[in-house]
Amino acid sequence: MRQPRRLWILTNEYEPYIIGGLGTAVTNLTKAYVNSNINVTVLSQGSHPPIRITKRKRLSIVYFPARAPYYSVKTRQFNPAAIERWIVQQGYPKPDGIHIHSLQFVNVATYYQSKLRIPIIYTSHSLVNLEKSTASKRKRLRTNQQALLLKKTNKITVPSRSELVKLKKLYPFVKGKTTIVSHGIVLRKSGARASRRHLLYVGRLVPLKGIEPLLNAISKLKQSGNKVRLDLVGTGSRSYVNHLKALARKLGISSEVRWLGFQSQSKVQKIYATYGAVVMPSSQESFGLVALEALASGIPLVSTRAGGLAEFVNSSVAQTIPRADSTAIAASIKAMWSNKPLTDKRVAAGRRLASKYQWPQAANRYKKLFLQLQGSSTTVKRGRINHAR
User: Fold this and answer.
1) Domains within the chain, CATH numbers bracketed
2) Which of 35, 191, 234, 356 sees the fewest Cβ atoms within 10 Å?
3) What is the average pLDDT across 362-384?
4) What DSSP string describes 264-313?
């Protein structure tokens, strides 16, 4: 057996269209695949028509518009028939395997799995059934799609032990085809330092990220006479972002808070080290890539240990937040400020820890999984994809 020569990556997020940790993880993992001499084709969602193609050495990224004929708004799925027609016209070669990250590509992945008899690895970044959502109809649709993918895929990976426990509890049938593959980071040089009073939040603006208690914590710190600034990088629904901004006004901290919105992944990586500290007040995280990136950047981290964060966040590398409430968050930020020698020690330890999480290592784990799957199933002969009969 030999390592896969050609892989398809199916993802709803890929640079420059990154919303959260999923897009960051997929982009960096793909680059690690390519650097290990695998030819990769990424099928992703673009922001505007027409189809956009970006090509580099051993890498082709195809951004399909989320509209007919390539996408169904009703089913929230990309259309295998339309995508196949386009791929045939372009002459793309057959893949040895598919690595899927996003539910919008369930139909595409299972179609090619059956047609080409190739293995699928599904990396589950979160469990839809456990997400808080008021759009119950949409949630049921996505939950059913995820259950189908979990059944059809040959191997399921999750980034942390906590996600594996939740997955097995919710879907007992996955037993025997699950494993943990941790995310990685790109280790960078430390940059200029800002005051540790200048805090940074990076991530989606959604309730489970703890932004409301964080804003209340900033208010408490200001009221007790502390100088503090908070910049937030990330996006969310318009209604929720407006709610957060209204809360900041109500708390009287609008001058202390800046809403930076979406920022490219490359820019985020550069600005980490220019802040005084990163704050992660999440009540739920499948892994917590932002926290690991903060440690890698040599910046103080103030974080909960919710979900996957517990894999690497502890009192040796970060100021931990015991509870995701405003009082605990404020006290933890203040503790980070007040003990500079301990904070410096944690920064050094955190950078050493983060250096152990590298994307090439993750890519090697996945390559071994594909090898195992290829050895236990029939794979297609090399060539180009033909139209389905």
Assistant:
1) 6-184+358-375 (3.40.50.2000), 198-354 (3.40.50.2000)
2) 356
3) 76
4) -HHHHHHHGGGSSEEEE--S--SS-HHHHHHHHTT--EEE---GGGGGT-
